[in-house]
Amino acid sequence: VVMPLNPLLGQAELGHILEVMQPKLIISESPKVQLPAFGALPDLLHRFSPNTKLIFTAVTEDEAKSAYSSAIDLATFRKLGVKSAHPIIRAPEDEAVIMFSSGMSGHPKGISINEQTILANCEYSVQAMRYSTDDVVLSGLPFSHVFGQVVVMLAGLMAGATLRIAPRPLPD
Helix or strand or coil: residue 108? Predict the structure, then answer.
């Protein structure tokens, strides 16, 4: 189950999510990238989720901007105990993603989304947006947000479109 987290979360919100969810693995950009959650991850994991393994995928901000810096090879996963590169066949009703909302009570809330819901929303998005293999889809939305993940990223990939990611979009 994938649990995308917003790198702009504060330490209190991120600590709460780690404590409640106890993830097995976090794949993150380098703490050298100047976003609040990245630098705090080692300490937060030590305090809230000590059994979670952490992999940093980029060393510098320039590497973080590279389209290829986030690739993690199979050898890295094998070191973490992953025994097979074969996909796991899942039932349509199986949980696929947990997205976090801001929460009405002050704590982020995990929202479980199953495989069939994700796929159906992607198919509807491809049709509604008329995505095709000729398209280049610009994403200024975080993939930790359901619209950014489903309508932009996953639907774009489903249609065979090219994705261009604006790492830190600013109004100007």
Answer: coil
Q: In angstroms, what is the C-alpha Rg of the chain?
A: 17
Question: Would you report the helix, strand and coil content of the chain in percent, each value rounded to 5?
Answer: 35, 15, 45
This prediction has a pTM of 0.76
**50: three-class secondary structure by DSSP:** coil
pLDDT digits (tens, 9 = 90+) for 98-156: 998 876 677 888 899 999 999 999 999 999 999 999 999 998 888 888 899 999 999 99
Q: Which of 137, 90, 88, 131 is nearest to 113 (CA)?
A: 90
Distances (CA, A) of 130 to 39, 123, 151: 39, 10, 11
Contact 121, 142 (CB under 8 A): no
Whether the CB-CB separation of 113 and 149 falls below 8 Å is answered with: no
